[in-house]
Amino acid sequence: MAARLARQSLLQKLTTSFSFVVQEAVLRHRLGDAEAHRRQLRRLLEVGGQRNVNVHVMETGGWHSGLNGAFTLMELPDHDRLAYEEGQLNFSFYSTPEQVGLLTQRYSAIAGQALGPKESAEFIERLAEAQ
Fold first, then answer.
1. CB 21 within 8 A of CB 77
2. Torsions phi, psi of 58, nearest 5?
3. H helix intervals, the chain
4. Do the beta carbons of residue 52 and residue 17 sit within 8 Å?
5. Rg of the chain over CA atoms, in angstroms?
6. What are the average pLDDT values for consecutive 10-residue runs of the chain, which has 131 residues?
């Protein structure tokens, strides 16, 4: 729990930008009661409303390259770029321009298929109201 809260504090760093694509099914999956789910969705709206954070919702249905598994793209202070993939049994870091470039292209394609930040916020708001 402490590690999760520490990671969340990074979102407050306005000099760092974040972009997330979240699958619709994940947003609909309720853990806990309706009120807890509503709070989680509203927190996501709050974070997504920050100027340094973009949240995109990928609507359910159809194929996209994000179905191959989640990954994270990072740019370090010295502008080196890394990518990270994690599965249930393993994880991989990538640092070569070819590997990172491929995942960067995939992210661009995924984000292009997803709802934009404004439409995503409206979608999440409707889900929160429906709880």
1. no
2. -95, 110
3. 2-10, 24-28, 34-48, 97-113, 117-130
4. yes
5. 16
6. 77 89 95 94 96 95 83 92 90 95 95 96 97 84
- List, edge to edge, every strand of the sheet that includes 71-75: 71-75, 81-86, 91-94
- CB-based burial of residue 29 (10 Å sphere; 0-12 exposed, 13-18 middle, 19+ buried)? exposed
Nearest to 27 by CA among 3, 13, 4, 48: 48
In whole angstroms, give the CA distance from residue 19 to residue 94.
19
19, 56 Cβ separation under 8 angstroms: yes
